[in-house]
Design brief:
2 copies of one chain form a homodimer.
Chain A lengths: L1 E2 L11 H5 L4 H8 L6 E3 L4 E3 L7 E7 L2 E6 L5 E7 L4 E2 L12 E4 L3 E7 H10 L1 H27 L2 H18 L7 E3 L4 H8 L3 H13 L3 E4 L2 E4 L2 H7 L20
Antiparallel strand pairs in A: 1-2, 2-9, 3-8, 4-7, 4-9, 5-6, 5-8, 10-12, 11-12
The structure holds a DNA duplex.
Chain lengths: 251, 251
DNA sequence: CGGGGCTTTGATTGTAGTCAAGAAATGTGG
DNA sequence: CCACATTTCTTGACTACAATCAAAGCCCCG
């Protein structure tokens, strides 16, 4: 864990700015929210389940997974986080962290203390409302994941997962010709979808043979988006992030 | 759908009051949040998926399920709501409702328009912060459900589900001798856990034979809580609903 | 007392899990 | 840059949990 020299102006457009138009004052506030950025190496644990905590994290660069361990040894990945995501917020309501945050790639984060967050809640009604919207979006994502897990077969679930990643990565400009880097092992994808690595392997392989996807190393290409969309049992959500009933701009 | 004459003082202690100490002013505000209470009959659809909406609901009495339909005909129940719950809030971020709300029993609700909610966000930092905490709790519940669905067998999932209901109903005083009414058919429990009614039937039956539970009609008794807790792969969460970093009381 | 929904049970099928081992890819140190 | 070690991927054989299909019994409820 090393502190790095990235200036606050390097902050990526994060969830708020991506989905709502912010005033310059609001953007400045958001940028001053986090502590100085910190680098993490691949596989590093940012924060362990059960650990007492006093902050959330802004993910500035890289991939991080959030997971829950079970006594029997298996684990559930509850979310794959991309740059711009806010990590660890579900643990706000607990004395100890509910999930483990693990760096999937080298990554950069900025801590935001609960105290700082409390100040924001106390003084910035509109940003607070946008925070609520962001949390509701995460909740929707979980509802969709749950729906897929409960009702879809392995290949359908994979379609849902790949299309979702494609959409989120495209928003970050990380998709070229429907191809992107996927730094998850098949084991991890299994932990995400509630399946075994063996079954993920066979399913991916079958999808490749059917021409739905193409793989080379960590790179995956969604070769037949139309077919993947037909395979996916879930509709695409169209978030309306800043409806007109939110608190008005202060400036 | 009939309007009923229940006065606002009849409001049950809902999520906020149950978990944080509110000032009299705050309680009054919350009670004035909803429109006049409305009665719904069993099986009535409060709101359909895809429907354009301008409000959320306070559930004052009875049980309501929130579900997502899949094109192939199956459905996922994302939450079983009990009195005091706030319904339909995930759809705040969408132009149309994400889930269908269906009355499981005769029930009573009060609508809260988005406009009203926006006013609350604009003027009541502490209540807004508590709202955020409530949403995070719902998110945690989804994370746990997901974890159970992805990693637990039918009987383990049933244990998780029954223990969770037991805990929530006990808080409402609806549990006597570890027994409570369960107005869900086995088909519905299946839709909740991502299993078929047949498999639910066999699993419940086996649990009954093993003395974990006892059933008579809609009534279920958790006959061996200790064994159920051992069976459940999930820890019990201890929400810390109003930490000290939240915005201070106004009064 | 009839009927529809719910529960129960059996027989069969299928998707996914388990165990195991070899191949390929990736990473590391000399 | 090569050799070794480790992780990840792939494949096969077998098992098991859960789905499907079908039908009978039960229980409310009108």
């Amino acid at each position: 864990m090393h502190c790095c020299r990235r200036s606050s102006l390097d902050y990526p457009i994060h969830r708020f700015t991506a989905l709502a138009s912010l005033t310059p004052r609001e953007m400045k506030l958001l940028q001053s929210l986090g502590e100085p950025p910190v680098k993490h190496r691949r596989s590093e644990t940012l924060r362990q389940e059960g650990q007492v905590t006093n902050c959330v994290y802004l993910l500035l660069d890289g991939w991080v997974i959030s997971s829950i361990l079970l006594p029997e040894g298996s684990r559930q990945i509850t979310k794959v986080h991309l740059p711009g995501d806010m990590l660890g917020t579900p643990s706000m309501v607990l004395p100890a962290a509910a999930d483990t945050l693990t760096a999937l790639t080298d990554c950069v984060t900025a801590r935001v203390t609960y105290e700082r967050l409390g100040q924001l809640f106390a003084t910035e009604p509109r940003l607070t409302a946008l925070f609520i919207m962001a949390v509701q979006l995460e909740r929707l994502a979980l509802m969709d994941t749950l729906t897929a897990m409960g009702n879809a077969h392995a290949r359908q679930q994979l379609a849902v997962f790949l299309l979702d990643l494609h959409r989120r990565l495209a928003a970050l400009g990380a998709v070229k010709g429907d191809a992107f880097d996927l730094p998850l092992t098949q084991e991890l994808i299994g932990d995400l979808l509630g399946l075994t690595n063996v079954h993920i392997n066979r399913s991916l392989r079958a999808m490749e043979e059917d021409g739905l996807i193409a793989r080379q190393g960590q790179r995956i290409r969604l070769a037949d988006m139309a077919a993947l969309r037909r395979l996916s049992p879930l509709p695409v959500r169209q978030p309306q992030f800043a409806p007109d009933w939110l608190p008005p701009v202060k400036d």
